[in-house]
Amino acid sequence: MRFDLQDWDNKSRESTFDFVRISDESDKFRILAGGYHGNAGDPFHTPNMDDSMQSMRFSTYDNDNDMNSKTSCARTFSSGWWFNNCFLVNPNGIWYPSPTYGGKIPNGIIWNFWHPNGYSLKSIEIKLRPELFWDVKNQNCRLCTWENSFENILKSLLILLKIVENKSIHQ
Questions:
Q1: Are β-strands 133-135 and 123-127 bridged in parallel, bridged antiparallel, or unpaired?
Q2: E strands, the chain, where?
Q3: What are phi and psi of 155, to 5 degrees?
Q4: Parallel, antiparallel, or unpaired: how do β-strands 89-90 and 12-22 relate?
Q5: In angstroms, rounded to a whole number, what is the distance separating the alpha carbons of residues 81 and 74?
Q6: Which residues of 27-41 are buried (b: 16+ CB within 10 A; e: fewer)?
Q7: pLDDT for position 50
Q8: pTM of the prediction?
Q9: 112: number of Cβ within 10 Å
Q10: How many C-beta neighbours within 10 Å does residue 59 have?
């Protein structure tokens, strides 16, 4: 999983995690992540456990799974996320046309490791992919680089379609 962040000065940062596990609905989509690298900060492993996203369940407006006993973080900050008590990052917050927001509550697109004090980012892209990819160039399955991931996925799908097509022709 990778987070690509952009601020209002068009500066960028990223946080990448080598592995991410999200449980199913019966465990309320609990998230586990590790293998951080990047320059935007790691919200899964923080010095204060009340801020960490690690092992949190997903909260929405109508499904409060955060650890805050006084409020629903999803309702208060207008988004769904893996809130703890409540957050250091909120990439699903409300988009504002500037780094400031109109209300008293910092409910914008927040990544406090980079821009603290409720600065609302211009954008965050969250990118997910399977751990194992078909490496088209080397014709094997391996962990691919982020570069050309979309192109690799398309090429992999075309190869798989050809394999399926060839099997059906020969049957």
A1: unpaired
A2: 2-6, 12-22, 31-38, 89-90, 110-111, 123-127, 133-135, 140-142
A3: -65, -40
A4: unpaired
A5: 7
A6: eebbbebeeeebebb
A7: 86
A8: 0.75
A9: 17
A10: 26
Query: How is 145-156 classified by DSSP, letter by letter?
Result: PSTTHHHHHHHH
Q: Rounded to an integer, what distance in angstroms lies between the CA atom of residue 127 and that of residue 134?
A: 18
Residue-wise pLDDT for 58-76, tens only, equals 999 999 999 999 999 999 9
pLDDT at 132: 60
User: Cα dist. 78→26, 44, 74 in Å?
Assistant: 24, 21, 6
Whole-number pLDDT of residue 157: 67
Residue ranges in the chain modelled with pLDDT below 50: 146, 170-171
Q: Tell whether omega for the bond before 86 is within 30 degrees of 0, i.e. cis.
A: yes
* Angstrom distance (rounded) from CA 171 to CA 47: 59
Sign for the CA dihedral angle at 17, 66, 59, 74 comes to negative
pLDDT of res. 119: 93
- The whole-number pLDDT of residue 55 equals 93
Q: What is the pLDDT of residues 126-149, one digit of tens each?
A: 998 776 655 555 665 555 554 555
- How would you class 144 by CB atoms within 10 Å of its CB: exposed for 0-12, middle for 13-18, buried for 19 or more? buried
